[in-house]
Every structure is written in structure tokens, then in C-alpha cells.
Specification:
Elements lengths: L13 E4 L4 H12 L5 E2 L11 H11 L3 E4 L6 H7 L1 H21 L4 E4 L22 H22 L5
Helix pairs in contact: 2-4, 4-5
């Protein structure tokens, strides 16, 4: 069996980014229910994931074996339409920092979770920017591109996803 396909030990150090959100909190509950007790959790007040130096220090200090990314700046349709550049800038920073510094810290495996909400309803395949007419659609397209980049980036760093 490939070592990357083996189950995580219940003693593994697991960092769940975004543990207070809908998906992240469900991950934490499921992990705890299944006996994982060595979870590493930080609130936004404790760690700003958009700040690269802070993320680098945190991951170097905590040394998680596994990283689960469920973190993002969220705000709903109105906020996304009102501040589109802020959302994409911060979310790309969060994703990029966690991926980069997970590699630097020697993380064994990283899981980056995307959402179906980043794709427009009934969009043609393949999706191109021209299909996205509203500002929220353009943000979703950019987020989908970031999600698609995670696999090749982590693969080139030797991380399994």
C-alpha cells in the first residue's frame, strides 16, 4: 500500500484552519468523534492566516503532520459584490500562506477544501471568464482558479493532497 494512502494515526498532529466555520467545525467534530485528540486549532484573533510571517512561525512551531484548509474570508453575496478585490486578495493570501509554509514546515499531507459555491449555477463546461457577467461570478471564477492551483502547487512541493 502506498504510504500516502494509509490512515492517519489518532495521535497525529492535525491543524484545522477555519475550525469555527461551517465546514471546519464539522471536520473537528468528526475527527473528535473518531478519536483524534491532537488537534491544533487557532482563532483568527490568535492567528491571521493572511499574514505570511505569522503563518510561517506558527507552522514551524506547531509542526503539524496534517493540515486541513477550511479557512476563508466569507461575507455573503452583498459583501462579495461590495468588496470583491478584498475578498480575492485575502483568500489567495490565506491559501498561499498555508500551502507554502506547510511545505516549509514538513507537513505530510494537506487537504484544501473548495466549495460548490465558487462556481456559477448552470455554467457551461469548461468555464471561462466571459461566462461570468456579475462581479460575484468573477470572484467565484478567481476562487475556482485558486482551488485548481492547489494540487499542482502542493504536488511540486512534494506534498500529497
Amino acid at each position: 500500500m502506498d504510504s500516502s494512502a494509509q490512515a492517519m494515526s489518532t495521535a497525529a498532529r492535525i491543524y484545522v484552519a477555519g475550525h469555527r466555520g461551517l465546514v471546519g467545525s464539522a471536520l473537528v467534530r468528526t475527527l473528535q468523534k473518531n478519536g483524534y485528540r491532537n488537534l491544533i486549532l487557532r482563532t483568527h484573533a490568535d492567528l491571521d492566516l493572511a499574514e505570511g510571517a505569522a503563518v510561517a512561525r506558527f507552522l514551524a512551531s506547531e509542526r503539524p503532520e496534517y493540515v486541513l484548509i477550511a479557512a476563508a474570508r466569507v461575507g455573503g453575496i452583498l459583501a462579495n459584490n461590495t468588496y470583491p478585490a478584498d475578498f480575492i486578495r485575502e483568500n489567495l493570501a490565506i491559501q498561499g500562506n498555508i500551502i507554502q509554509y506547510s511545505w516549509t514546515a514538513g507537513v505530510k499531507r494537506l487537504l484544501f477544501l473548495g466549495s460548490s459555491c465558487i462556481y456559477p449555477r448552470l455554467a457551461p463546461q469548461p468555464i471561462f471568464p466571459a461566462h461570468w457577467s456579475r462581479p460575484i461570478d468573477r470572484i467565484r471564477w478567481l476562487r475556482s482558479r485558486a482551488s485548481r492551483c492547489a494540487g499542482p502547487i502542493t504536488g511540486s512541493m512534494g506534498l500529497t493532497t
